[in-house]
Structure formats: structure tokens, C-alpha cells
Amino acid sequence: MDATPREGSQGTGPGPITPDGCAVEMYARLPAGGEPAIVAAHAPAGASLLELGSGAGRLTRPLLAHGFQVVAVDESPEMLAYVKEARTVCAPIEGLDLGERFDVVLLASFLVNTADAALCGELLASCARHVASNGCVLIQRENDQWHDESRVPREWERDGQRIKIAAVERRGTDRVAVRMEYGFEGAEWSHSFVSRVVPDALFEAELAAAGLALDGYLTDDHSWVRAVPAPCD
Fold first, then answer.
1. Complete DSSP assignment for 106-151
2. What is the pLDDT averaged over residues 122-132?
3. Which of 10, 15, 23, 91 is placed for a possible disulfide with 189 were both Cys, Cβ 3.0 to 4.6 Å?
């Protein structure tokens, strides 16, 4: 994840903690899950891909294995130290301008749900700034299950790592405070942050404000989105 501070962000556990509360050693161990397969299903084979907020390479390595030409961007040098296989750029996402265009720009890890609406706009603008005219932007969003207090706490395991949504607390109509807990081989970490609830209509308007247009929702729960550069008037 990108290291830009987020409202209410805090992390605990062994090893370095980034300003947005992410534990570097935990993310270095966190399995990729199904995200790379979603990207591969909706992006051209062998495409150039700009991964914004790559963290410790959780998605970078499987994306490279899928044949993508990946440039990994993250603000945390401690995170990027784990990314050996791809070209890396240590910089914030907002304001980033590499002077390059990519077939695919990837904004995963729910970064678009930052509690700071202005920051969200800057993240989307960076996506628009780096996507080729015939390319696409793939975005991962939080879905309703993340905000369902009736289903908390809930816990699951992935490749030997325990992942738990320990607490969810509504704050007004459009903010949710979340506490995640992780365990692996006796080590324990936590990550607390505040997310912004962004309904589809608002999200599509924010895409448009950044110069992007919705091309489609890729999953039934609308947690994955494909956007393209908006046509010029």
C-alpha cells in the first residue's frame, strides 16, 4: 500500500510501520489471493502495467508471472526493498508524473476508499495521467461486506496467515472505522484506518472529474472496476 497518511490510520506489530499504518513485515508475507487473476482476465497479455501502491510486491510478483511488464510505485522505501523483480519508483501516488503512459494502470488495495475525498481525486488523476489513450485503469474498491457490522468479527486463513476483520464502526453516513488483525508464525499485527463509503454514482462522478469513464464493473459486488480515458468533447 502507499504510505500516504490516512485518517485514523495506525498499525502495531514487529518491524517498520508505514505512515498509513501498514506493517511492512506483515505485507511482505501477505498472500496475493485472487487479485492477479482478475487483472489478467481484464488486461491485454504482456501489457505494460503501472502498479500504484505496490507495497512489498504482494501483487507485483504474480503479475510479472502472468507476463505483464510491471513498474511498481510506492512511497515506502521499506516496502519497495522487498520488490526485486520489477522496476520500482519510490514516490507518493498523488502528484506522480513519470512522463510515461501504460497499457494498464492498477490501483488496488482499496486505496480509492481513502477517507480524504480530495486525496481520492488526486489518486484517480494520477491514474488518468499515466494511462495510454487506448489503455485501461483497473481499480479495487471496498464492497458492502467490509462495512457490514453484523458480520464482524470474521476471520479466515490464507496460506497459513490468519486475517481478521476485528471491528467495524460507522462514523456518520459515509465513514467507517475498521480494525484488521493478522497473525503468522506467532507474530501479530494490527491495522486500523477509516474508509470512505463511495456509492457507485458518486464513484462514477469522481472518475469523470479525473478524466476517466466507467467501462464496466468486473465483479458482481462492484469491488473491481475497469475505467478508460474519457472521450474528448
1. EE-TTGGGBS-HHHHHHHHHHHHHHEEEEEEEEEE---GGGG-GGG
2. 98
3. 23
Question: Among residues 211, 4, 14, which one has the least CA distance to residue 112?
Answer: 4
Helix (H) or strand (E) holding 25: helix 24-29
For 139-147, what is the mean pLDDT? Answer: 87
84 vs 230: CA distance, rounded Å: 35
Architecture of domain 32-144+198-229 in this structure: 3-Layer(aba) Sandwich (3.40)
The grid coordinates listed for 219 are 465483479
Start-to-end CA distance of the chain, whole Å, equals 35
pTM over 0.85: yes
**Angstrom distances, CA of residue 108 to CA of 169, 195, 233:** 23, 14, 29
What CA dihedral angle connects 145, 43, 48 and 207, to 10 degrees? -50
CB 111 within 8 A of CB 51: no
Please count the other Cβ atoms lying within 10 Å of the Cβ belonging to residue 97.
9
